[in-house]
Amino acid sequence: MQPFKTLTSLAAPLDRTNVDTDQIIPKQFLKRIERTGYGDFLFFDWRQTPDGKPVADFVLNDPRYAGAHILIAGKNFGCGSSREHAAWALSDFGFRCVIAPTFADIFFSNAGKNGILLVKLGEEEVGILLSNAQTIPGYKLTVSLEDQTLTDGQGFSAKFEVDPFRKFCLLEGLDDIGLTLRHATELDTYEAQHDEAVWLKAK
Amino acid sequence: MSNTPKTLFEKVWEQHVVVEPKGEPTILYIDLQLVHEVTSPQAFEGLRLAGRPVRRPDRTIATIDHNVPTTIEGRLHILDQIAAKQIATLRQNCADFGVELYDVDSPNQGIVHVIGPELGITKPGMTIVCGDSHTSTHGAFGALAFGIGTSEVEHVMATQTLPQSKPKTFRIAVEGELPLGVTAKDIILAIIGKIGTDGATGYVIEYAGSAIRSLSIEGRMTVCNMSIEAGARAGMIAPDEKTFAYLKGRRFAPQGAAWDKAVEEWNKLPTDEGAKFDREMVIDAAQLVPYVSWGTNPGMVAPVTATIPDPAKTDNELDRKSLERALEYMDIHAGTPLTEIAIDRVFIGSCTNGRIEDLRAAAKIVAGHKVSSHVSAMVVPGSQLVKEQAEQEGLDTIFKDAGFDWREPGCSMCLGMNPDILSPGERCASTSNRNFEGRQGRGGRTHLVSPEMAAAAAIAGHFVDIRTWEVNEEVTA
Ligand code: SF4
Fold first, then answer.
1. Which domain holds residue A201?
2. Which pLDDT band, with edges at 50, 70 and 90, does B477 fall under?
3. What is the ipTM of this complex?
4. From the list B100, B159, B202, which residue is nearest A177 (CB)?
5. Ligand 1 nearest-atom number relative to CA B382
């Protein structure tokens, strides 16, 4: 996983709430067996008309936001299906950070596993950022995971919370399986004992 | 050990703590991982690259449900080459890693959340995961069951554990008697409508109260299934005599002395008197009605007797925009009565409402009627076993006589990753769980309802208040 430290980038405003993973990556692209190459399909139904033309007023088709690595969105971002393809698509498209008032649980962990930093801010602050990104040409944000701060160099500055362990993993770009296997001995002991509970056997 | 009263969730959680490293998430042991073709290929590939085996093939079970066509001909020759490849990949992966697979030709194939319970694989007190958000279904047995992403699928395959931060607990008690015509589906739609699609984010819900206890196991699964639609990590219901009666004798349920021991252990699981929840809510069952979703997320629901709400009455700008967008997408207008909305398609099936009891309930409504001339309707049993049982009971005949399509098991039109999809602009009464834009096919419009409401809508051609429906008892008998 690519480590996340600081990032300064254009920020794209997606002023919608409850953006679900069916929108982030529609199901027809879930049939692939690869982990890469989903960026082209990000927000597919919102980006393209059924006959394949770009939807002019969709934010990611606006040349102003080309190359943005930060996405700003309304509350409950990433709700719905557990598809990690949503995180793969965001990251493949170039997003490394999403800012929203709240995120859905499964998406939250999927994003972490793919080096995407999710920044939770109050609805009011997100509202300000959305409107700044819409109105100020070339609007950029700097996010520092180390300091847990978000600034725009024009007076906006906010602190955000992040779970210390998640922060550590993101900063170091750590693979979870390796981390868990540090506890292999405890796991073996636990498992041997747990297997005696026949009422918890699968088969 | 202290004698502090504990919740069902806490008991299951504590029994599965492998280690609690300081400053890190708890490493939680996973008793069972269910696998399907869509969210597993990259996980198996990860194992392969790292040279890791599946740690516990005996705690891993796979089936094919999402992509598979629901006609016999379609299953024999899958035209979609990408889907066919994904299915072939699962077969190869299961063979390579020693995982048992209920393939398309197996009498046990079906939607992953339908087969776990019906085979007796799902048991009270277990921790269960699957790369699928509706894993919460299994919570109906008093298991802690939740959906995970593909990296986590790989993690569980490799270690049979998951690092997890402890969620908060939320008790929703539904008390009293459900009015006639009001189903488990209506209970959960009412809850989501009330608390919103993010109302339970960060929580595990325990559904309790007399109305929940009076539900069948199938009904409890319907409720737990849609916990994720309220944002919850999982939904759980305490196991009781009904749970044990459902499990007893099923293929992978414990037998003989092991059964008695199991029941003894399972009986310790229900929440203790006086246990504390982080949040509580009580719902009066008598106030519940049949619901219909009108918008593009499952929180946008209303009683069947209501009219489409007016976005202008919402203060928050982002919320108003979402409402306006939803009405536009759904092509409906504020003030229209729900019962005046005409539909084109009906889908009865999915892991929410594709079990035998759902088919019985729908058949009861359908018996002796014909599907409206402008509606195309289908019934897709949740599994091979459900299909077989339904056919033994003659339900297939009732549906077919009325003009319904009777299909082979799978996810079908719940998500349209297979040939069953809505065409742009088509409006569907669906017993599934998500009405997101394009969920059932690009441009398709989904209204979530109970099986009874879907059946009645198929016949009337528009939504009807099921409480006014006259059941044709003679035909059903
Ligand atoms: S029936 Fe629908 S919700 Fe259930 S597992 Fe299949 S696609 Fe998912």
1. 175-203
2. very low
3. 0.93
4. B159
5. 1
